[in-house]
Design brief:
Blueprint lengths: L1 H8 L5 H11 L10 H4 L6 H13 L13 H4 L3 H5 L6 H7 L4 H11 L5 H11 L3 H9 L3 H15 L7 H5 L7 H15 L8
């Protein structure tokens, strides 16, 4: 397969067709082929992105579904298959947002556990339900980790997680400029406030 990827990168005629044929011929238990270099738009081989993603959407496999994150119009057509592929499909379903639908929202809510921030953020992207992400922050045993994760959650979900604002504000005087800037941006996303948060 490595030689095929080189052929694709060199734009050898027929190389993308070879990749598609290999995808079809791989047995289910050998589907560990990593396709992200071929399927993510803007990568070394942008011309391969859509044909490879179309093939993935036609027959989703856990090892390959992340490539659909970059082509939501294809992912939307196979939501029912993606729902059956957690946790690897969590990011793709979350990227679809509300268009993922009720079935995906239910599956993401079930997957949202106290030990996985990515899975806990996913329902908020689909249904605006922020409680699983807030629960992850609260469940962290370490105060420093709680504040750090609160900044990430607040930066992503904004005013829906206003209850995390005290934790976020505790990061404003952090020693590193990057930490202070992240906290200031999160405060802005939650409150719109900037006058007293500049790093």
């Amino acid at each position: 397969m490595a030689s095929t990827l080189v052929e694709v990168r060199l734009r050898v005629p027929g190389a993308i067709g070879l990749v598609l044929r290999l995808m079809d011929e791989l047995p289910e238990d050998a589907a560990t082929l990593r396709l992200t270099p071929l399927s993510a738009p803007g990568t070394v081989v942008p011309a391969a992105a859509e044909p490879v993603a179309r093939r993935i959407a036609a027959r989703p496999r856990a090892e390959w579904v992340d490539a659909l994150r970059h082509l939501p119009m294809l992912a939307a057509g196979c939501v029912d298959d993606l729902v059956r592929l957690p946790p690897t499909s969590t990011g793709v379903l979350a990227a679809l947002g509300p268009s993922a639908g009720h079935t995906a929202a239910r599956a993401l809510h079930v997957r949202a556990g106290a030990d996985d921030l990515t899975a806990a953020l996913a329902p908020a992207r689909v249904t605006a339900e922020a409680e699983p992400a807030v629960d992850v922050v609260r469940a962290l045993p370490d105060a420093v980790a709680r504040r750090s994760v609160a900044v990430r959650v607040a930066a992503e979900l904004g005013s829906r997680v206003a209850e995390l604002l005290p934790l976020v504000e505790e990061r404003l005087p952090a020693p590193g400029l990057e930490s202070r800037a992240g906290a200031a941006a999160a405060v802005w996303r939650v409150t719109g406030r900037t006058h007293d948060t500049a790093p």
